[in-house]
Write a structure and sequence with these properties.
Layout (H helix, E strand, L loop, with lengths): L7 H4 L5 H25 L11 H7 L7 E4 L2 H5 L3 H8 L6 E2 L8 H8 L7 E5 L2 H4 L8 H13 L3 H13 L12 H10 L8 E3 L5 E3 L12 H7 L6 H20 L3 E6 L4 H10 L6 H7 L3 E4 L4 H4 L11 H16 L2
Parallel strand pairs: 1-2, 1-3, 3-6, 6-7
Antiparallel strand pairs: 4-5
Length: about 325
């Protein structure tokens, strides 16, 4: 019986495959460039995911005398780093380690325990995170701290960080709102994802522009959110305030400085916050029982004259003016 053999090279049509691949790459590049310009024309801007690798990149910037920002999304939105440098004369912009919707206590304690850091910590105090014993609210922060420890010894993590720093925030197509799953969904609905009002920069500062006219009257849903919160018991309050005070004193013993800041809140959010976390029972107690300096923005006309359209965050234009005002006030502490 006759046996047949085959050669893989005989299965492929003959031709100039180099030119074919080059043409394919050129076409792909044109498609990417076209998509980039099209999305920008709709109002999309480059933005990064505020969690994960962006947090690690910021943590790697920490120097012995850095100013570090911790807390929630208010700390990401209400300060402008360039204005801060201009007002304070700092040699570098603040290191922004804030995480939206989380408790900063774990990060605070890690910084207080870092023997190589004795700079200034600005702690954004949001009552529903600062005063509650909610372990789940600290899980994200703990994950980032663990990842940073791994990054310091892992070559793969260091390479990932290097790649991130080179490409972050350059292209609209890297915007988290334009993930492939979102784009596929838009093909079914025949609608582009809505243009977000917030752009997260590679330095983890957020630029908010409420171009759609939203105001703080639209935040009544906050009441439903607050109503589900389990309020801290006296024992839990003592424990949470004790954690904060201990961390402050550890950091001050190294020559560091801590300032607790209650960012401006407006309208419905201000009313609901006061109803659930009365100043006299929470902020004033923090002032009495925890070391460090404190600034409550709503107590000062120059810090509370801004309109926070969603009740909690400032627009980018107001963030610049707020940064000037609070930098001057902190200098006087």
């Amino acid at each position: 019986m006759r046996l047949s053999t085959s050669n893989s090279s005989t299965r492929l049509p003959r031709g100039r495959w180099g030119r074919t691949w080059l043409a394919t790459l050129i076409l792909l590049g044109l498609l990417i460039v076209s998509a980039e310009f099209a999305l920008r024309s709709f109002g999309f801007m480059p933005s990064v995911d505020p969690d994960g690798i962006s947090w690690l990149a910021e943590r790697a910037r920490l120097r012995v005398d850095s100013t570090v920002l911790i807390g929630t999304s208010r700390m990401q939105s209400n300060l402008d780093p360039e204005t801060w440098v201009n007002e304070t004369g700092a040699s570098q912009r603040p290191v922004n380690l804030a995480l939206a919707g989380t408790s900063a206590k774990t990060i605070f304690e890690a910084l207080a325990d870092d023997p190589e850091f004795h700079g200034t910590i600005l702690y954004d105090v949001v009552p529903r995170f600062a005063f509650r014993a909610a372990p789940q609210a600290e899980e994200l922060a703990s994950t980032h701290i663990d990842s940073y420890a791994l990054q310091r010894i892992s070559l793969a993590k260091r390479l990932e960080l290097e790649i991130y720093e080179r490409r972050a925030g350059r292209f609209v197509l890297t915007n988290p709102e334009l993930r492939i799953t979102r784009l596929i969904e838009s093909l079914y609905t025949l609608e582009l994802p809505s243009v977000p009002s917030t752009r997260m920069r590679p330095d983890r500062f957020a630029e908010r522009n409420y171009f759609d006219g939203r105001s703080n009257s639209d935040v009544s849903t906050y009441e439903g959110y607050f109503s589900k919160i389990t309020m801290p018991t006296e024992q839990q309050m003592v424990a949470q305030l004790g954690r904060l005070d201990t961390a402050v004193r550890r950091h001050e013993d190294k020559g560091g400085k801590v300032v607790f800041i209650a960012m401006p809140v407006c309208g419905t959010v201000a009313e609901i916050t006061e109803a659930y976390f009365p100043r006299a029972q929470y902020w004033d107690r923090l002032v009495r029982e925890v070391a460090g300096s404190k600034v409550r923005a709503n107590d000062f006309p120059d810090l509370s004259e801004f309109e926070c359209f969603d009740g909690s965050h400032l627009e980018f234009s107001d963030a610049i003016a707020f940064t000037r005002a609070i930098a001057r006030r902190l200098e006087a502490l």
